[in-house]
Every structure is written in structure tokens, then in C-alpha cells.
């Protein structure tokens, strides 16, 4: 039986929902508005001096994968773009793997410290995060450039006669991105590692599992959600990274972020830039889908 | 120790100190005990007395600061936990959350490199042993506490260890389930013939289940014996106090003959008393004695009653009745008598009542 009081409460709830509407509208516009603009631009014609002309065209999308020869108008696969896609994917994956290789032991180490000192370690891990990205990137540059710390030290020691070219290589980009995104790998792994009951590890040893097997059969499956979350958190921003490849890769070793920037700047091809941006988004979406799948699988087990 | 019974675990002068300097914790202090093959051996003691520490040393999770631990005469100090033929049932069960019941039980055998078919057969056998066949493919988070306990047991038993360590496995269960599991554990122990080292701080559990009990306090083993020995002949005040209810009195030793002596009770009357094993105290000494409440009967004061006191209070417990008496020297004395159908001896609070001691009721303490 609905009393007056109940009716009043229901009305109250309805009204308060209504009150959240403006916030929802703002959120919706903020989240999808720019995206819709980018999507729209990708189907327009490039303006002569940047910007767009309001005429429908699939030119932008076509030139994501195809390129037209300037002289004879023949169309061929856009090797330059594909190689940049491929480099971005490869470097991002390698960055993710390297971050995992460094981040997992780090997270394990912190999780096994006494509770009092854990926060200090976490703080130390996140300090670089509070530092400006450009400064961090230039710091890496200082370390690996030809007259940088590493090369100077090696030459002084007589290990090498000529400096090793590290700056402006793919290696430099990977190193820089790993340095920048490592905390994003450590933190989620630590979060799931902290929840790991170390008595399970002892139970594993007790049941004749060696260290390696305890790691593989007990620790890894239990902290898997953290590993996946960390990998996504590193992989996604690596894929769209702009500053690090720009500074450490010189002008030659472009990644997707740089390619997109190029189209909106010197390239004066906004539709292509928009189409590339959306392509990047799709790749990220696929990665996230993979994450959700894997997380659900993990959820079924634990 | 009997020679025909082989020693499974020999703990020899083991100490364990955690930390160092002023913060050092002496968790175990020169502990020695020989646990026999096929024995249900219980470590009994209050919280923090070092029971878990001793189990962890036997399992190999920690290393003794001093002393040796031998398994069938062989020093196992250098063996990591995964090479010791010893399995543990953890207090919180520590089941692997990402595996099914069957996978949990098969884990140890799988790690030992047993062929798949053998593992499956063994898991099957264990599942029927602990009556969990229907739940083989459940996740461990989807079974009840008692079922988890049985899985933990089956998991530890599956690799057929020489010794099974059980760290308060029943403490998380409710009373009814606990009684059932006590019986089940006893059954499993006799069926498998594996040596069980069982930890509890529940004296009743220790008395009903064990072949022998070691009573621990503050990192030391105070007494080792069968439940009857430990209950009827406690060697120290702590043991007498920890196991069951008891009356402490002071008496004077008279004639000592072997393991018994005559003592003079506070009332001035003589009584026969058992001496703690291995002691030969001098006559004339003041000693502490214990008398269990159920080892006495009440009667009207006469030359047959050894002690007298004023009855303060009577509490009816169904099967028996507790009488609280105040003795002449103002100490409290509790007598417990079984209720009979033919009505009980009528004593009224405030009355002067005599206490008759049963044979062997008086035990002298080592102190
Ligand atoms: N890793 C450790 N570091 C420092 N002290 C410890 C450690 N482990 C145990 N102790 C201390 O050693 C003593 C014995 O602990 P233990 O866990 O063996 O007790 P217990 O008899 O199992 O108690 P409970 O019945 O509460 O489980 C305690 O005082 C405890 O605080
Ligand atoms: Mg304990």
C-alpha cells in the first residue's frame, strides 16, 4: 500500500534525479562532444591553410592506409603510415613488457616490506610522477646522449672507444616511455599483490612447489588482474605518446602521436589527422576489450 | 620412551628468537620433544606460547635459532619446505582461491611430478575420504567453512606425508561442526596411520583427541603425557590450572616412598599424595598440592573427612552440582558431585561440611 509518505519519497527521488540532468548533459557533451567533432572532421575536405572545408570527403580516411602519387595519381598502400602504426604498436608493446619486467619485481618487493615502510617505497615510486614530463624526458636525454652520463662513464672506463648512439633511436623512445609509465605498472600490481595472502605462498611451498612454481602457479594467477590493469595503463598512453618520441626519437622516429600532430600542423590535413586519431582510438578500444575479457575470465576463477 | 615405538619427529633443544637486542622475542626456549610414529600428538597452550612457531620450524618456514629437528633420525635443517615430507593444515586453511576443490587437493601430487592419472585417482580417493565428492568442481570460495576445512585436510593428506601438522584447524568452526570434525580427524588419523601434530588452545579438544599432549607456556614445554597423566597428575601449577578446574592447597611433606608420599593437609590431617615423576623432595618441606573438584565427596564432618569448610554457595549444572566451600584458612575449595536420581545429600549454604578425598586425589606439584 502506497502511503502519502511513500509517494512523497518517490517524488523526491524523481525530482533529485531531474536535478542531476544538467550535470549529465555537461558530462555527455564534455566526453563525446570533442570526439564527435573529430569524427565529423575526418569526413570533411582539408582546407588550404589548415582547418576544414565543409564538403563531404573520404579522402582523410583513404589516406590513412593509402597514398596517392603526386605525379601520376596512382594509389598505393601508405607504407609510411603503416610503418608508423607498426612502430607505435611494437614500441608500446615492448614498453609494456619492459615495464612489466621491472614493475612486477618492484611491486613484489614493496608488498613484502614491513607495513610501515611500504608507503615510503610507494612514495618514492611515484615521485617522478609529480615531476614535469618534459623535465623527465630531458633527464633521460642527458643520461643517454653521446656525451651523456652513460657514454662518458663507459669511455672513461675504457669499455668503448666511440660513444654508443642511443639517443634518437627506438631504444631511446622505449626507455623513455618505460621510465615515464613505470609507476602505472607498479601501482596496480602492488594493489593486487598487497591483497595476496602470503600464507598461500607458504601453502605452495608446503605442497612441494619450488619457488618458480609458486610464482607461476600461485602468485601470477592471483595478481593477474593487477598485471592486466597495469599493462593497459602503460600500453594505452604509450600508443598515443607524443612528447617522449618527439624528444628522444629526434624528428625521424615518429610514433602515432607525432603523426597526428603533424597533420594538424605542418601537414595541414585535418581530416587525415582526425581519421588517424580515431584509428588510434579504435586500437585502444580493442586493447580495452581484450582487458575486459581477460578480467572477466580472472573473475570467474577468484 | 618405549623402544618399540619409533620416533617420527625429534625436536632437540630447539630455541627460536625473533628479532634482536631489547626487542628480541624468545618464542621457543630450549624445547625438546620426541613425537612417535602414528601418534596423535597435541601441542596445548595459551595464545602466544609458541605453538605455531614450533609447527613452522618443523614445516621449514622458519629456522631454529638453536637446536635440531630430526625426521626419522635425519637432520632436516637444510631441507626447504618443499623437500620435507611434512604437510600443514593452516589455521585459516589457505586454500588456493583460483583453483577448484579438486585442483587444490591434487596440487601437492602434481608438484611431486606424479602422472596425471595417478593424481586424479588420488584426488578421488581423498574426496571420498573427506566426503566431498559432490563438490569436486566447486571454487573454494563457494563452499562452507567446514567444507573448506575438509578440503584443507584432504589437500595436506593427498601427498601422503610422513607427518601432518594441524594448526588449530577447528578453531573457526561452530561447536557442533567442531565435535563432528574432531571425530572425523581421529578417524582419518587411524585410517591413514600418519603422525598428526595437532595444535589447539582448547583443553577439552586436546584431552579427547590425543594420544599424548605437550602443555606449553611462554615458549617452554611444561609437561608431556597422555591425557590422563596430564589431567590426573599435573606436574606444575600452570598445567593444573590450564587443564580443567582445580583446587590449590599448601601442605607439608611427611614420608616419601618412591612416587608417593604422605602429606599433612592444612587441616592437620594426613593424606596420601602422588609426587611429580622424577622428583624426590625432602620430607618436612612445604609443597603445593592440587585436588580435582570431582575427586572428592562431601559428608558431615567426622574422623573420615580430611578437610572441613563452610558451604558458601551451591550451583546446579544438570549432570552435576558445584559446591563452593571456604576452608578454615580462608582458601576457596570447589567440590563437584554428580547428581543422582535418588536425591542428593542435603547441605544448606552456611553449613559446616566435611570433605572426603578419593584415593589418589592429591597430587604434589613441582615448584
Ligand atoms: N615473525 C615473528 N616476529 C616476531 N615475533 C614473532 C613472530 N612470530 C611469532 N612471534 C612471537 O612469538 C610468540 C609465539 O608466537 P606463536 O605464533 O608461536 O604463538 P601461538 O602459540 O601459535 O599463539 P596462538 O594460539 O595465538 O596462535 C609470540 O609472542 C609472538 O608474538
Ligand atoms: Mg598460532
Strand element count of chain A: 4
Radius of gyration of chain B, CA atoms, in whole angstroms? 25 Å
Distance between the termini of chain B: 24 Å
Arithmetic mean pLDDT of chain A: 88
Report the average pLDDT across residues of chain B: 89
At CATH level 2, the architecture of the largest domain in chain A is: Orthogonal Bundle
Query: What is the number of helical segments of chain B per DSSP (H or I, 4+ residues)?
Result: 8
Helix coverage percent of residues of chain A? over 70%
The span between the termini of chain A is 43 Å
Provide the number of structural domains of chain B.
2
**Would you list the SSEs of chain B in sequence order as H and E?**
EEEHEEEHHHEHEHEEHHEEEEEEEEEE
Give the arrangement of secondary structure elements:
The complex is a heterodimer of chains A (302) and B (367).
Chain A: H1 4-19, H2 21-41, E1 44-46, E2 52-56, H3 59-65, E3 66-68, E4 75-77, H4 79-111, H5 115-126, H6 133-144, H7 149-157, H8 170-195, H9 198-206, H10 211-239, H11 243-248, H12 256-264, H13 270-301
Antiparallel strand pairs in A: 1-2, 3-4
Helix pairs in contact in A: 2-13, 3-13, 4-8, 4-10, 6-8, 8-10, 9-10, 10-13, 12-13
Chain B: E1 7-18, E2 25-36, E3 40-44, H1 51-59, E4 66-71, E5 74-75, E6 86-89, H2 101-111, H3 116-129, H4 145-157, E7 163-167, H5 175-192, E8 195-200, H6 203-209, E9 212-217, E10 220-225, H7 227-232, H8 237-242, E11 247-257, E12 260-264, E13 270-274, E14 286-291, E15 296-299, E16 307-316, E17 320-327, E18 332-338, E19 352-357, E20 362-364
Parallel strand pairs in B: 3-8, 3-9, 6-7, 7-8, 13-20
Antiparallel strand pairs in B: 1-2, 1-4, 4-5, 9-10, 11-12, 11-14, 12-13, 14-20, 15-19, 16-17, 16-19, 17-18
Helix pairs in contact in B: 2-3, 2-4, 3-4
Amino acid at each position: 500500500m502506497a502511503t502519502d509518505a511513500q509517494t512523497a519519497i518517490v517524488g523526491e527521488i524523481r525530482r533529485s534525479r531531474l536535478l542531476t540532468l544538467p550535470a549529465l548533459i555537461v558530462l555527455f557533451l564534455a566526453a563525446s562532444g570533442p570526439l564527435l567533432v573529430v569524427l565529423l572532421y575526418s569526413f570533411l575536405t582539408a582546407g588550404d591553410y589548415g582547418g576544414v572545408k565543409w564538403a563531404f570527403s573520404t579522402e582523410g580516411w583513404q589516406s590513412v592506409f593509402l597514398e596517392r602519387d603526386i605525379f601520376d595519381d596512382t594509389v598505393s598502400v601508405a607504407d609510411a603510415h603503416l610503418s608508423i602504426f607498426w612502430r607505435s604498436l611494437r614500441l608500446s608493446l615492448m614498453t609494456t613488457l619492459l615495464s612489466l619486467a621491472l614493475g612486477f619485481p618492484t611491486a613484489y618487493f614493496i608488498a613484502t616490506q614491513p607495513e610501515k615502510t611500504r608507503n615510503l617505497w610507494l612514495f618514492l615510486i611515484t615521485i617522478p610522477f609529480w615531476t614535469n614530463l618534459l623535465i623527465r624526458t630531458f633527464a633521460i636525454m642527458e643520461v643517454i646522449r653521446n656525451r651523456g652520463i652513460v657514454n662518458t662513464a663507459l669511455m672513461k672506463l675504457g669499455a668503448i672507444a666511440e660513444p654508443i648512439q642511443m639517443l634518437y633511436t627506438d631504444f631511446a623512445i622505449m626507455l623513455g616511455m618505460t621510465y615515464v609509465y613505470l609507476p602505472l605498472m607498479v601501482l596496480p600490481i602492488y594493489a593486487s599483490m598487497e591483497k595476496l595472502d602470503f600464507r598461500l605462498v607458504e601453502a605452495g611451498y608446503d605442497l612441494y612447489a619450488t619457488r618458480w612454481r609458486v610464482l607461476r602457479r600461485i602468485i601470477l594467477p592471483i595478481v593477474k588482474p593487477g598485471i592486466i590493469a597495469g599493462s593497459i595503463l602503460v600500453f594505452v598512453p604509450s600508443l598515443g605518446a607524443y612528447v617522449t618520441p618527439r624528444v628522444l626519437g629526434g624528428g625521424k622516429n615518429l610514433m602515432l602521436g607525432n603523426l597526428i600532430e603533424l597533420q594538424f600542423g605542418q601537414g595541414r590535413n585535418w581530416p587525415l589527422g582526425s581519421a588517424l586519431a580515431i584509428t588510434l582510438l579504435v586500437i585502444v578500444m580493442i586493447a580495452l576489450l581484450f582487458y575486459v575479457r581477460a578480467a572477466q575470465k580472472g573473475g570467474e576463477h577468484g | 620412551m618405549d623402544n618399540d615405538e619409533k620416533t617420527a619427529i625429534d625436536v632437540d633443544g630447539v630455541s627460536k628468537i625473533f628479532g634482536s637486542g631489547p626487542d628480541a622475542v624468545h618464542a621457543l626456549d630450549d624445547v625438546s620433544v620426541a613425537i612417535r610414529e602414528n601418534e596423535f600428538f597435541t601441542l596445548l597452550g595459551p595464545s602466544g606460547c609458541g605453538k605455531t612457531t614450533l609447527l613452522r620450524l618443523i614445516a621449514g618456514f622458519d629456522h631454529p635459532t638453536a637446536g635440531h629437528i630430526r625426521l626419522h633420525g635425519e637432520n632436516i635443517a637444510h631441507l626447504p619446505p618443499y623437500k620435507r615430507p611434512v604437510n600443514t593444515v593452516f589455521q585459516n586453511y589457505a586454500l588456493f582461491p583460483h583453483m577448484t576443490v579438486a585442483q587444490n587437493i591434487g596440487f601437492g601430487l602434481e608438484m611431486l611430478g606424479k602422472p596425471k592419472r595417478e593424481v586424479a585417482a588420488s584426488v578421488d580417493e581423498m574426496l571420498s575420504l573427506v566426503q566431498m565428492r559432490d563438490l569436486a568442481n566447486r571454487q573454494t570460495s563457494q563452499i562452507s567453512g567446514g567444507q573448506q576445512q575438509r578440503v584443507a585436510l584432504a589437500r595436506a593428506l593427498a601427498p601422503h606425508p610422513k607427518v601432518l601438522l594441524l594448526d588449530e584447524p577447528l578453531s573457526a568452526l561452530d561447536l557442533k561442526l567442531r565435535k563432528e570434525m574432531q571425530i572425523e580427524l581421529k578417524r582419518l588419523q587411524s585410517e591413514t596411520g600418519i603422525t598428526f601434530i595437532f595444535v589447539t588452545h582448547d583443553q577439552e579438544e586436546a584431552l579427547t583427541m590425543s594420544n599424548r599432549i605437550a602443555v606449553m607456556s611462554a615458549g617452554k614445554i611444561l609437561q608431556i603425557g597422555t591425557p590422563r597423566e596430564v589431567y590426573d597428575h599435573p606436574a606444575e601449577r600452570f598445567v593444573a590450572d590450564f587443564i580443567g578446574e582445580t583446587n590449590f592447597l599448601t601442605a607439608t611433606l611427611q614420608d616419601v616412598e618412591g612416587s608417593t608420599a604422605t602429606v599433612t593437609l592444612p587441616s592437620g590431617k594426613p593424606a596420601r599424595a602422588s609426587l611429580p615423576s622424577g622428583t624426590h623432595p625432602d620430607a618436612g618441606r612445604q609443597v603445593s598440592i592440587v585436588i580435582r573438584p570431582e575427586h572428592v565427596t562431601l559428608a558431615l564432618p567426622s574422623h573420615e573427612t580430611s578437610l572441613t569448610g563452610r558451604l558458601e554457595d551451591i550451583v546446579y549444572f544438570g549432570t552435576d552440582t558445584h559446591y563452593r566451600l571456604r576452608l578454615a584458612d580462608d582458601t576457596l575449595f570447589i567440590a563437584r558431585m554428580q547428581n543422582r536420581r535418588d536425591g542428593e545429600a542435603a547441605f544448606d549454604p552456611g553449613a559446616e561440611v566435611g570433605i572426603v578425598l578419593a584415593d589418589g586425589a592429591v597430587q604434589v606439584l613441582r615448584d
